[in-house]
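Work Package 3 (structural annotation) set out to generate three-dimensional models for the target panel prioritized at the project kickoff. During this period the team completed the workflow that converts sequence records into discrete structure tokens, so that structures can be stored uniformly alongside our sequence database. As a representative example, we reproduce one entry of 138 residues exactly as it appears in the project archive.
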Amino acid sequence: MPLRHPLQETAHGLLDLGFRRHALPTVLPGIYLAGILPAVLIPVLLVVFAFRESVLIGVAALLCLPFMIVAGLVVVRLLLELLRTIGQFAEIIARAMNLIFGFHDTMADVKGPARGIAAGIRAAKIRQEPQPVHKRKR
């Protein structure tokens, strides 16, 4: 398979109307980059609004700014990791379902010959002559 540009891969994943490809692995980095913007922008805006209220609250918010940014990035990263894990779990379930359906088809193929063998065994047991019963002498 030739190497393709990540944007081309993303476009192919998004435009796959038959849902034969998983778009999540190719789209996830872009979602993460898009999630970084609010994770940084929201704490900065909070600091700006804190300075509008008072200088003391603004300074306190400014001291907390790195922690708020890191917390936002951690939340974005954890949510995307959860999304990725759910996607992997869905792939595992799809593979298991394919195995189950394959096993079901195999069992359906075996069912006919197995019934024939079982019928032959029952017929052989019926044809056996009964054994004489010995009576005890008193």
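Residues 54 and 66 are 20 Å apart (CA to CA).
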